[in-house]
Amino acid sequence: MSQYDYLIVGAGISSAVFAHEAAKVGKTCLVIDRRPHIAGNVYCEDIEGINVHKYGAHIFHTSIRRVWDYVNQFAEFNNYVNSPVAVYKDELYNLPFNMNTFSKMWPEVRTPEQAKAKIAAQVAEAGIGEPSNLEEQALSLVGRDVYEKLIKGYTEKQWGRDCKDLPASIIKRLPCRFRYDNNYFNDRWQGIPMGGYTKMVEAMFGDTPVKLNTEYREFIAQNPDVADRVIYCGPIDESYDYQLGRLEYRSLRFESEILDEENHQGNAVVNYTEREVPYTRIIEHKHFEYGTQPKTVITREYPADWKPGDEPYYPINDERNSSLYAQYVDLASKEGKVVFAGRLGGYKYYDMDKAIDAAFDLVEAELGVTIA
Ligand SMILES: Cc1cc2nc3c(=O)[nH]c(=O)nc-3n(C[C@H](O)[C@H](O)[C@H](O)COP(=O)(O)OP(=O)(O)OC[C@H]3O[C@@H](n4cnc5c(N)ncnc54)[C@H](O)[C@@H]3O)c2cc1C
């Protein structure tokens, strides 16, 4: 007889939803994670009393009511609204592209009509027919000024290539908001869990046992019959020892610094849009929670190529990787016991709300419980 109904690999947000719902219906779970902490990529480390988002800045935003209701059981959310600022050389602009951006870029522009006319004139001037690369695509959507100051350098840093060498299909739309409104997201709900994400995930796990610093392979070799079923929130290719090949990712490198000043940049997120500055963003973590600590912690974000062993941040859902992933899913479907889940098991970029919503579907399929 197995000791547990489920072994859950990974202690991130996807796993926490499953563990919470399984416990509610009387199923026993053991959670393991190779990292020394819970919460996966939404983990916050306390540095100088500030919740530092160790794996990149995380802002919760959603329009899915059942997800919003669900997370509010485990944390109270503050009223943080993401309003990034972009620095281009010695110029400073509000994001997303909105009337504040346009009136700063073109001082003669005050009204939505004037902004639309300015963009339309620049789009016409670019004279692009069928865009053949990302640069042409952007020029045909927003014109030269917005492209050169706010899109070009940032995108080139993100992809490590010139915009002229990137496919047009990467950018489908470049939404322009013709209101004076710096709220980055269009979602119905948004905020940061007060006290940080780790505390919220801890509340979701409740009494479910979690073993940290525990690698699946070694653990299962020593405990082959520990559970009837396995929910695997790690990379699917790794679990098959890359026998069909490796899935690819884009990665990030973070450099954090504690500064002996109270307020460094006056905003949580500042983007650097010129290519010559090697990082894409500086995050000042305390502003996510309106912190008043005497010191501050900032993190510079550098996009990076991914190689085996690096943290897999963004899946590259191109033809090669999508087809490889489908082959792994096929392999997995022949196994009865292991179910792949989460952003790594699904090889998908999921915002937190989508990861939680996908976990609800897993709960329904596996436990027969519908979350309304
Ligand atoms: C840079 C960045 C910024 C983001 N910002 C936002 C944002 O602002 N808003 C938003 O909504 N979403 C954001 N996201 C998305 C968010 O991080 C994910 O939705 C979320 O982390 C998914 O949780 P998960 O549980 O599926 O995966 P994870 O959090 O990755 O958890 C998986 C866990 O499994 C463990 N694991 C893997 N393999 C093994 C193994 N073999 N043995 C043991 N343990 C294993 C890992 O150590 C990890 O802890 C961002 C993502 C990135 C990359």
Automatic annotation (TrEMBL):
Domain of life from the UniProt record: Bacteria
Keyword Flavoprotein: yes
GO cellular component, one term: cytosol
Record keywords: FAD, Flavoprotein, Isomerase
GO MF annotations in UniProt: flavin adenine dinucleotide binding; UDP-galactopyranose mutase activity
Domain UDP-galactopyranose mutase C-terminal: 149-349
Signal peptide span: none
Keyword S-adenosyl-L-methionine among UniProt keywords: no
Any Pfam family matching the protein: NAD_binding_8
Gene3D superfamilies membership: NAD(P)-binding Rossmann-like Domain
Needed co-factor(s): FAD
Record InterPro entries: UDP-GALP_mutase (IPR004379), UDP-GalPyranose_mutase_C (IPR015899)
Family the UniProt entry places it in: Belongs to the UDP-galactopyranose/dTDP-fucopyranose mutase family.
Protein name, per record: UDP-galactopyranose mutase
Source organism of this protein record: Denitrobacterium detoxificans
